[in-house]
Amino acid sequence: MKQYSGSVFLYTNPSVLENVGTSRPLLLFLPWLGSKPHSYKKYIQLYFNHGFDVLVAESSLHHFLWPRTGLEYAGQLLDLLMKEKELSSRPLCVHAISIGAYIFAQMLVKSASGQQEQRDTLKRIHGQVFDSLVIGSMEKMAVGVATMISYPVFKPLVVRGSLLYFSLLKAQTSDYYEQGIQTFSESPIPCPALFFYCMNDPMSDHVAVEHLLLDWKSRGIKAQGKKWKSSIHAGHLRKHTKEYTETLDSFLQELQVSSPKSKL
């Protein structure tokens, strides 16, 4: 493992000894808030099975609560993928879970107003996976914040406090969220996309996810979804291991970016 910062780590596939740092595909993995290496190692292994190295970029609560810092972090990730020699020429895929998709949306926003090289970096993305996308009303976001930082008994209080915070600091919070959601929805990366979601997720409106899928398909994007009636936010792999793994494996095989040296 190579560490680039306190929150960004490169995991090198031990089963692939050739093409290190050159043509081997790279996954940008953007996990859920508060995740630790032991909790996302199963995701890393899924991509190791397809010959990927995995660049993990963890998120912090302040990236969400004060979006300017999230936008700065997104720019740093773009610069790393653009300038770091061992990362700068690889084919990319993205797998974002929960708040990780927010960071990816900020990468889209940042690239739109940034350097041409940043936009070119995003053009290297061949596939994108979104798991437990936080989408819907501001109430959904407030529930997400409450789930992240409080015990269940304090959840209603935190939800009300979060909504007040978003209202009082609209220009510094909700305006950024709206811009991110709009850019993510209306200016997507035009490559295949896979969404994992469920009908009982309090932080993700499954109807909104399905509307997004239909909209992307109308734009010519090969988008597909895997939906469960009952599951766990950011826990679909744990709850539905076999279905999740089979769906992801099929998606990656269709992309044809896996290393030929991978051990399946």
Describe it for me?
It is a single chain. With 264 residues, the chain is α/β, with parallel strands linked by helices. Helix content is 48%, strand content 16%. It is built from 11 helices and 8 strands. Strands 1-2-4-3-5-6-7-8 form an 8-stranded mixed sheet, sandwiched between helices. Strand 1 (2-3) and strand 2 form a beta hairpin. It is globular and about 50 Å long. It starts with a strand and ends in a 9-residue tail after the last helix. Residues 260-264 have low confidence and may be disordered.
Mind describing the biggest β-sheet?
8 strands, mixed
Taking all Cα atoms into account, the compactness measure Rg is 18 Å
Put simply, the count of helices is 11
Beta-strand percent range: 15-25%
- The ordered string of helix (H) and strand (E) elements is EEEHEHHEHHEHHHEHEHH
Which residues form runs of ≥5 with pLDDT under 50? 260-264
Distance N to C terminus: 21 Å
User: Overall 3D geometry?
Assistant: globular
Quickly give the structural class. Answer: alpha/beta
Helix content: 40-55%
Overall pLDDT score: 84
The strands making up the biggest β-sheet line up spatially as: 1-2-4-3-5-6-7-8
Number of DSSP E strands: 8
